[in-house]
Structures are given as structure tokens and as C-alpha cells.
Design brief:
By secondary structure, the chain is an alpha/beta fold. 39% of the residues lie in helices and 19% in strands. The protein has a nine-stranded parallel β-sheet. Helix 3 links the parallel strand 2 and strand 3. Helix 3 packs parallel to helix 4 and helix 4 packs parallel to helix 5. The longest helix is centred in the middle third of the chain and has 13 residues. It is globular.
């Protein structure tokens, strides 16, 4: 199991805090010392990318997820349609979500996965787990009105947080995302502009209210993802509460 010495509190504490939060994604090959090193380097929570696991048998997945004990965790089983590697059935994916919700602090399920989105939210809430409902567009940034409608739909289905990750092609797209982020939608938001033009959003949007940013500690899992060391150094210099979590 990962041996972490940095105090962080629960995942709810982190999402409720004013300070920026940083997540790093891991697959099943991550060693305990890699997880601990990421914690020491500034990671607040780990996203466990179950869709990237070599084995997706329930017992194997549960064993691997247990290795993140002591680290605030998000379980994600990302579909191929939204940039992940899951090609199995919805029934098998739901079974995996139901198996891991007692072991993690949050789950991430796509709004587009209409067959399982509601059941995953229900399973998460039954175990006191947060439900993140996510939307990805790897080609464009939809209009503010379209994104607002996506947020409202996810909120009305019980999402605790809504994640929007869109391809930011220029500063106009960043402005669209910033405008949506700073409106009051009655639910917590994670907003990310992907791609080279969106990289600034990964550093700046947490200061506008985005509840989480993702950084890489090795392999990036999305276009434009920045190294953990760079994100942590920026946040430590600008956010005293984030810096305080490191000590």
C-alpha cells in the first residue's frame, strides 16, 4: 500500500477547500513508491484509471485499488468514446464501479454514458462517495449555452461535481470556459481547456473556482497536461493554503 506522510484530509475536505487541488492519474503498473513520491511532490489526490488496467477482473481491480489506501482517490473507467480505453460492456463497467465505490472517495462517470450514469451516481451516494459527472470534447469547445445545459442536466441527475474538459483552440475558447466556470450553476465544477492553447486553464482556473486540475507524473493522460512539478511549484507560490498542505 502507498505510504504517504503528507496530511490531506478527506476528498470532501479537499474539494471544499479554497486552495487549488491537484490530481495525478495512475494505472495498475504504478508502484507504491511512485504514488508516495507524487504525494510528496504536491499531488492531493490520485485518479485511478481502471480502464487502463491490464486486468479488469473485479477481484484484480479491487486488489489494485486497495494499494491506494491512505490517498484521496477518484475511480475512473473512461470509455473509448471520451478518450479512455474501456471497450467492455456497460454492465461490466457498472459492476466495477459498484465494487470500488466503498474503497474510494469519488467516482467519475461520463454524462454520455446514459445507461450507467444514474446507477453509478446511486452506488456512489449509497457508500458516501462523491459522484463526478464528466463531459469531454476533444475537437472543440461548445458554446457557453451548450455547456451550461450539460451542467444543469448532470446536476439534476445528482452529480456532486461536474467536469468539463474541452479542446481550447484559442483565447476565445478559454474565455468561454472561464465564463461558464464563474457563473453560479448550483454545483461544483472542474473545468479544463485541453490542448496547447488550453494549458493556462490548468494553472489559472483553480483560482476561478475549478475544484481540481490534473497534472502528470510521467505519462500524460490528456492533451496539454502539465508536469506535476510545474503545477505544484506554481500553486505553492500563489496559494498559501496549498503550500501549507505540503508541510
Amino acid at each position: 500500500m502507498a505510504d504517504t506522510t503528507q496530511p490531506r484530509g478527506t476528498i470532501r475536505d479537499l474539494f471544499d477547500a479554497a486552495a487549488p487541488c491537484v490530481a495525478v492519474s495512475f494505472a495498475d503498473e504504478a508502484a507504491d513508491d511512485e504514488i508516495a513520491a507524487a504525494c510528496a511532490a504536491g499531488m492531493d489526490m490520485a485518479e485511478i484509471r481502471i480502464d487502463l488496467f491490464a486486468s479488469q477482473q473485479v477481484d484484480d481491480v479491487v486488489d489494485r485499488v486497495r494499494r491506494f489506501s491512505g490517498v484521496p482517490t477518484i475511480a475512473t473507467i473512461r470509455s473509448v468514446a471520451e478518450g479512455g480505453s474501456w471497450t467492455g460492456s456497460d454492465a461490466a463497467r457498472l459492476a466495477l464501479f459498484e465494487a470500488v465505490v466503498p474503497l474510494v472517495g469519488a467516482v467519475d462517470v461520463e454524462a454520455a454514458s446514459t445507461e450507467i450514469c444514474g446507477p453509478v451516481i446511486a452506488a456512489a451516494h449509497a457508500h458516501g462517495c462523491l459522484a463526478i459527472v464528466s463531459f469531454h470534447d476533444f475537437e472543440t469547445t461548445p458554446s457557453a449555452s451548450e455547456l451550461t445545459a450539460t451542467i444543469a442536466d448532470a446536476r439534476d441527475h445528482g452529480a456532486d461535481l461536474v467536469k468539463l474538459a474541452t479542446m481550447a483552440r484559442d483565447t476565445d475558447d478559454l474565455r468561454t470556459l472561464a465564463r461558464v466556470l464563474t457563473d453560479d450553476h448550483g454545483v461544483g465544477l472542474i473545468v479544463i481547456g485541453m490542448g496547447e492553447s488550453g494549458a493556462a486553464s490548468r494553472l489559472l482556473f483553480p483560482f476561478l473556482g475549478s475544484k481540481l486540475t490534473f497534472a502528470s507524473a510521467g505519462r500524460a493522460t490528456a492533451p496539454g497536461q502539465l508536469p506535476l512539478a510545474q503545477v505544484a511549484a506554481t500553486f505553492a507560490s500563489l496559494a498559501p493554503d496549498y503550500a501549507a498542505r505540503r508541510h
